[in-house]
Amino acid sequence: MEDNLFVMEGLDFFKRNWKKYIFGFILSLILIFGLFYYGMRSSQNEKSLNQDKNYTFSFILENKDGYIFSKNEMIKEIFASEYVKSHSESSPEDVIEAVTVTYTDNNGKMVVETPNKAIAESFYTFLEEASSRFFIDKRAYVLSEKVEMSKEKVFEGIGKKKIILYGLLLVIFTFVFGTILASVSEKRNKKISQKFTLKDSDEIIDVTILRKESNEEIQTKLTNLINNPPVNKIVVMKDQTYLDAGKLNDSVYVTDSLDKIETLTFVPELVIIICEKNSTEKIWFGYQKELAKNYSDKVNCIYI
Asked: How confident is the model at residue 257 (pLDDT cuts 50, 70, 90)?
């Protein structure tokens, strides 16, 4: 029951603030686009350094089962170890540092770039001849007819992983921004619109589901709820539309504000503050909550 009320409260919160979540979605979309644009620009700027001096070609590498081999750093290291066998003046570290091998996951292509023409041509031959033991269970498909000078990068699309990442970020940012905007709006609302506002009460009895019933049925059920248990209590409700004072026990004192009580014929064991959703003011509730401490240590709230 409590879980259902919590879900209903959450759905009601969303219904009241759905425009805030739409605005949060727009903000998130702008932010995601900004992150994507910044990432693209940073990548382009990084790759454009010395681009006019780079030699490049592309290839696809598959394993024996026909699946794309995507470990670009591994293929670079293997080439470097093969290259230094015939070029003793170079070290594997120098070759690795001089070569960039980029893997694109949306088409499985690898692109080789290096400012050293000899290394580029040697890498090209290394893949074409496939004489290394590395190619025993693999096959390379060189897509370029020859080693060429680098050209301006063409946008090759967004990989699946990035699409999923951007999608998750969009959902998370929309929820965060929408909730922040909705919470600020709820805080500015002078009326109580959710039971979380009553969280400091000893017990919160949520009977908002009764609002679907007639006033007479609400009066009957609310009267039974107040009368039980039959202990001395003060009931505070600003608008007493849903109260039938004539049917309440003699141990119940009803008022629309605790500051109007002059004398009591009993010592109250409990103070009950009745709050109407979207009607009772937060200031009124806070004031009654403070006054209630003068009458009883136990303050309950009925949320209708």
From this structure: very high
pLDDT digits (tens, 9 = 90+) for 68-93: 998 989 989 999 998 988 888 889 89
The CA radius of gyration of the chain, in Å to the nearest whole number, is 36
**Among the ranges given (87-91, 253-257, 290-294), the one the predictor scored with the smallest mean pLDDT:** 87-91
Q: How far does Cα 44 stand from its chain's mean position?
A: 29
76: tokens are 């670079």
For 292, the token pair is 């209630």
What is the reported pTM?
0.50
Backbone phi, psi, residue 245, to 5°: -55, -30
In the prediction, which pLDDT does 52 show? Answer: 52
Residue with tokens 């000899």: 118
CA distances to 10, 83, 91, 169 from 94, rounded to whole Å, are 60, 11, 5, 39
Indicate the SS3 state at residue 53: helix
The C-alpha angle 205, 209, 214, rounded to 5 degrees, equals: 115
Rounded to whole angstroms, how far apart are CA atoms 148 and 58? 10
**Ramachandran sector of residue 73 (left: φ over 0; alpha: ψ -120 to 50; beta: rest):** alpha
